[in-house]
TrEMBL record:
<feature type="domain" description="Amidohydrolase 3">
    <location>
        <begin position="43"/>
        <end position="403"/>
    </location>
</feature>
<keyword id="KW-0378">Hydrolase</keyword>
<dbReference type="InterPro" id="IPR032466">
    <property type="entry name" value="Metal_Hydrolase"/>
</dbReference>
<dbReference type="Pfam" id="PF07969">
    <property type="entry name" value="Amidohydro_3"/>
</dbReference>
<dbReference type="InterPro" id="IPR011059">
    <property type="entry name" value="Metal-dep_hydrolase_composite"/>
</dbReference>
<dbReference type="GO" id="GO:0004131">
    <property type="term" value="F:cytosine deaminase activity"/>
</dbReference>
<dbReference type="InterPro" id="IPR052349">
    <property type="entry name" value="Metallo-hydrolase_Enzymes"/>
</dbReference>
<dbReference type="InterPro" id="IPR013108">
    <property type="entry name" value="Amidohydro_3"/>
</dbReference>
<protein>
    <submittedName>
        <fullName>Cytosine deaminase</fullName>
        <ecNumber>3.5.4.1</ecNumber>
    </submittedName>
</protein>
Length: 428
């Protein structure tokens, strides 16, 4: 074997109930998950009872804007609208080389965080399609170690922005994977609904997935998710469509939501919340009480809708923070949605791993024989501890190879009569 990870605890218990397992890897695939592998391997990692998971997956990101913090200036108000204006100021100054360099740097951070698959939107409201070319180049360059899926995203509105639909079609022809949209940014509700119809029909004709920025506002009457679900059902795109953000659902009338959520489940539309961004950008016009603005995550999950969390932004015109850490995303999502119960907390771990992988349609994702050998060894004993500590990624395995290592979190103490170190775990 090429690699064995020994004494691993799995996020979802092995069907036979083994407390720890050895994971055998050969030629980029997981070939064995057993209580003890007697064979030797070229390289071994002893997890010593630490959690070993399939890698983190970010279901919603903007790689064309990432790490542009401060270019050409900082977002002083921190609002969504100043962020969009700032992106507009930055766009004419973008160069392909700088964009590729920033994206590659972010992918380095991602790998170190055990984040090995991402869906990134790429703005197509620029006739040069410079960002599309740059991110297609990045996708090729990172392919040996990271799965990057691209969404053709008409940031300024596919109907509102002249030429945007043609640009989007060109981007798809160039190799972009998924059809995006932003119906709430069109000039009227009717045009928003029309944009959903046009884009879904185009995606259905091409056999592509759809992921739209949808109802990213505090407007309880912004209801494009209803149209998106209805079009998904009409066109038979069950399981291939996602609504991103859906923040208006936070403010909607409860009776209306009791009709909407079953429609979403029946049509197989997935929901992608972006906790760090939703909690900072929504509710800005409120005095007190201030709305959280994140979509109804536990209710959607309870109804059987597939829900993932995305990072959305890292050090860009909209958000000055972040470091590619999906455990930070899960931590925020858990708090915002008050998902502090045991099952709910574990569901937040799933929202940045298995659920996101299913929404992206990743093949061979998981920790079982036959799956791709992509794994992260976390300095935690279970998913809840991993979220609490934003646990160190002791080792990251991509395509069967250890690609990143990080030491465990420890602090050395110098206190009379107290332990010499702490690792922030409960030891009883
Ligand atoms: Fe976004």
């Amino acid at each position: 074997m090429d690699l064995i990870i020994r004494r691993a605890v799995l996020a979802h218990a092995h069907p036979a109930g083994y407390p720890t397992v050895d994971i055998g890897i050969e030629a980029g695939l997981i070939t064995a998950v057993e209580p003890h592998l007697a064979t030797a391997a070229r390289e071994e990692v002893d997890a010593e009872g630490a959690l070993v998971s399939a890698p983190f997956v970010d279901a919603h990101f903007h790689m064309d804007a990432t790490l542009s913090y401060g270019l050409p200036r900082v977002n002083a108000s921190g609002t969504l609208l100043e962020g969009i204006a700032l992106w507009g100021e930055l766009k004419p100054h973008l160069t392909q080389e700088a964009l590729v360099e920033r994206a590659l740097q972010y992918c380095d951070w991602a790998v170190a965080r055990g984040l090995l698959a991402m869906r990134s939107h790429v703005d197509v409201c620029d006739a040069r399609l410079l960002a599309v070319e740059a991110l297609l180049e990045v996708k090729r360059r990172v392919a040996p170690y990271l799965d990057l899926q691209l969404v053709a995203f008409p940031q300024d509105g596919v109907l509102r922005s002249p030429g945007a639909f043609d640009n989007l079609k060109r981007a798809i022809a160039m190799g972009v994977d998924v059809v995006g949209g932003i119906p709430h940014f069109e000039r009227t509700m009717a045009e928003g609904a029309e944009s959903v119809r046009l884009l879904c029909e185009f995606a259905a004709e091409k056999g592509l997935r759809v992921d739209m920025h949808c109802d990213e506002s505090d407007d309880p009457l912004s209801r494009h998710i209803e149209t998106l679900a209805a079009q998904t059902q009409r066109l038979g795109m069950h399981g291939r469509v996602a609504g991103s953000h859906l923040t208006s659902m936070h403010s909607m009338d409860n009776y209306y939501v009791s009709k909407l959520i079953p429609l979403m489940r029946e049509s197989g539309v997935a929901a992608i919340a972006n906790p760090l961004i939703n909690i900072t950008l929504q509710g800005r016009a409120d005095t007190y009480p201030k709305r959280r603005g994140m979509t109804r995550v536990p209710e959607l999950m309870a109804a059987g809708v597939s829900v993932a969390f995305g990072h959305d932004c890292v050090m860009d015109p909209w958000y000055s923070f972040g470091s590619g850490d999906m455990l930070e995303v899960a931590h925020m999502g858990l708090h915002v949605a008050q998902m502090t119960g045991t099952d709910a907390s574990r569901a937040c771990f799933d929202a940045v791993t298995v659920n996101a992988a299913a929404i992206l349609g990743l093949e061979g994702y998981g920790v079982a024989p036959g799956c791709a050998a992509n794994l992260v060894v976390l300095d935690a004993r279970d998913p809840i501890e991993a979220i609490r500590l934003r646990a160190a990624r002791l080792a990251v395995v991509s395509r069967g190879r250890v690609v990143s290592r990080q030491p465990a979190q420890r602090a050395a103490l110098s206190l009379e009569g107290r332990p010499e170190s702490v690792d922030f775990k409960l030891h009883r």
